[in-house]
Amino acid sequence: MSHAIAWTCAAMFVSAAAGQVLEFESGGLKYHALTRAGVTVMVAPLPTRVLGYSILQVAVSNGSVEQQQVQAEKFQFRNAAGKTIQALSARAVVNDVLKRAGRNDVGRLIGVYEAALFGNSHLELRFGYEARRKDAMAIGGTKMRAAAAAAAIVLGTHKLDPGQSTDGAVFFPTSNKALGAGTLTLEAAGEVFEFTLAPEPAPAR
Q: The pTM is what?
């Protein structure tokens, strides 16, 4: 369930962001991009919290010569107080949504994620997410529809061949509190990707 995307400014990321974090705003969100070992990771906090989770939009592009694996649970956030929060796996998110989500949770999550996805001028959606969203909305029953929508959005486990990209949402259990300022890290491609995040934007209502 990967979101296939094309990076319209991939060359810029590879040349300008190699080894240093590039920051830019798009669609009202603040993005951070970093390239290491040919792999580019881009992250942005989303202005909503659903079911007590803080959510990040993440996109990964494999510009290396080897296959790379990406997993949501490899993301960690360390806040200013030194507390570390582990992101949940895609399976854990979907299972929790299946148990607890209501119609309003699903609509808000889809709305905010799509606004970020389509509002980012650095990404060009090719295929995948839109079809999965339609399939999710066709499923009967609020709980099953919510779980299907979460599965379409959440960043799962992906094995990216050279030249492939993926995107998705990463969920942090924060008991409906903001992540706040701190350091986001991801281990991938034998490298540590590190981003310094400011306090996330106010939740959308």
A: 0.80
Closest to 163 in 3D by CA, of 23, 64, 25, 18: 64
Q: Retrieve residue 97's tokens.
A: 């949504």
Burial state string for 175-188 with b = 16 or more CB within 10 A and e = fewer than 16 = eeeebbebebebeb
Distance in angstroms (rounded) separating the CA atoms of residues 124 and 48: 23
Closest C-alpha among 48, 16, 49 to residue 35: 16
Q: Contact 174/85 with Cβ under 8 angstroms?
A: yes
Rounded CA-CA distance 200/176 in Å is 13
Name the residue type at position 85: I
Helix, strand, coil percentages for the chain (3-state, nearest 5): 30, 40, 30
The domain locations on the chain are: 4-197
Q: Locate tokens 């990076």: which residue?
A: 7
Structural contact between residues 108 and 50, judged by C-beta atoms closer than 8 angstroms: yes
User: How many residues would you count in the chain?
Assistant: 205
What are 85-127's pLDDT values in tens digits?
A: 999 998 898 888 878 876 677 677 777 777 766 665 555 444 3
